[in-house]
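New to this. Please check both lines:
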Amino acid sequence: YDKVEVNFNQYFDSVLDYFKVKIGEKYTLVNDNFEEKLPLIYDKISFFPYKSKLDRLLFERDGKKVVFDIAKWQETNLIFDKIQVLDDKEMIVEENGKSGVVDYAGTVILPLEYDAINYTENYSKEDGFALVLTKNNKSALYQNLKFYTEFIYDSMTNFHSSIKIEKDKKYGLMNAKGKI
């Protein structure tokens, strides 16, 4: 092997007692007997945080991010250009330059029709992160299945515990519920 990296049991109490190994430019998982348990097609293998346990992995292959289900020992249908974990329920995904939000079962929460989705520093255990969605060069604030503003702002960015907004070259501050 060109590289032997990590035994996943070091980090999680799980049934995944494998090592990540690199052969050439590709990765696979091997057991204690160094038997390959995956095809040698992955550019990257990493943890996929989910409810603080290891039951999924995140693979990269052919320019795509792929969520792998350890219990079923197969790739899921969660295959996207980009995947960014939000919390233990949802993730921001991107495909063909458009972003959306899906849950870990693959249910679409926000369709892949936004130019960008960014999370703010505003988080609550009940509602999750407040998100800034951009579509057609206008931004809106969204959280927990609810839009708090329309797509009327030229920009929205984190500003300490608030959100700095810009509209018609004027600036202000907004809270996570859309109050100015």
Observations:
- The CA atoms of residues 109 and 150 lie 18 Å apart.
